[in-house]
Amino acid sequence: MRPDSQPPIFVVSLPRARERREALEAALADLGLSCTVIDAVDALEGVPHEFEASIDRTVRPPLSDPEFGCALSHARIYRQMVEERLPHAIILEDDALPTEGLRSFVENQEYRCSSIILLYHGAAYVRRLGRRQLSDGTQLAPLAANCSGTVGYSLDLEAARALMEATTPVRYKADWPLDLRALGACITRPVLVGHPPTRADSVIDRSRSRQIRGPRRLLTRHYWQVKLRRLFAKRVRGHRVARS
């Protein structure tokens, strides 16, 4: 595939994670896909001083510094898309495991089917109506509620603009700072991007902020809205892909 015949594929990777980024670059090249590596914000020892003005630490529970770094890294790509007016892009984290399905997704321009498409997901709630068939038996299912995971996703300029606004400043985790339903978000089934079965080496996972679930959440409108959406939705799970 010619590099100019695909949307930009941005790989978010810490500068010190050279083995990961090189492995992903090689895997994409095997699929005939090119990519651009974006240096992630390294906040292991704290958010770099130059980014403090771009974050909001007042939201509770507060994010850990590595979580801020991850969210800042994705936000950097949203801003780049808006500034360069890129119509579409695919974003992968450096531990992503692209499948053959990703090549078909790109070749057939199926990233145009929705403003934002999650190519990887864990447990997710999808609407029972509105599903579409893509190539190679892949199904596109509209989300009924946000799910976690920014390992791999595609987005268009409209979604990039909305995400840029929602991350100015960064207040929430990279997954996700707004209600994805407003963007018509979908997931692919099966997933087109996997990740290793364990993330024990993940700095973000080890430092992740933990929200204390108390009875006060039962009094919030948001809690019952999500409960209602899930009641009428179907729960699905992504399939992890082990690194060989």
Structural descriptors:
alpha/beta, 244 residues, 8-stranded mixed β-sheet, 18% strand, Spore Coat Polysaccharide Biosynthesis Protein SpsA, Chain A, two-stranded antiparallel sheet
Characterise this structure.
It is a single chain. This protein is α/β, with parallel strands linked by helices. Helix content is 27%, strand content 18%. The mean pLDDT is 87. The strands form three sheets. Strands 2-1-3-9-5-10-8-7 form an eight-stranded mixed beta sheet, sandwiched between helices. α2 packs across α4. It contains six helices and twelve strands. The protein has one domain: Spore Coat Polysaccharide Biosynthesis Protein SpsA, Chain A (Alpha-Beta Complex). β1, α1 and β2 form a beta-alpha-beta unit. The chain is globular and about 45 Å long.
Please outline the helices and strands.
Elements: E1 9-13, H1 18-30, E2 36-39, H2 65-84, E3 88-93, E4 97-98, H3 100-107, E5 116-118, E6 124-126, E7 132-133, E8 139-142, E9 152-156, H4 157-166, E10 186-189, E11 193-194, H5 203-207, H6 221-231, E12 234-236
Parallel strand pairs: 1-2, 1-3, 5-10
Antiparallel strand pairs: 3-9, 4-11, 5-9, 6-12, 7-8, 8-10
Please tell me the CATH architecture by its name: Alpha-Beta Complex
> Based on CA inertia axes, which overall geometry fits?
globular
Number of helical segments?
A: 6
The CATH class name reads Alpha Beta
The biggest beta sheet is recorded as: 8 strands, mixed
* Total beta strand runs: 12
Low-confidence stretches are: none
What's the structural domain tally?
Answer: 1
Mean pLDDT: 87
The CATH topology corresponds to: Spore Coat Polysaccharide Biosynthesis Protein SpsA, Chain A
End-to-end CA span? 25 Å
How do the strands of the widest beta sheet line up side by side?
Answer: 2-1-3-9-5-10-8-7
Name the structural class: alpha/beta
**Radius of gyration over alpha carbons?**
18 Å
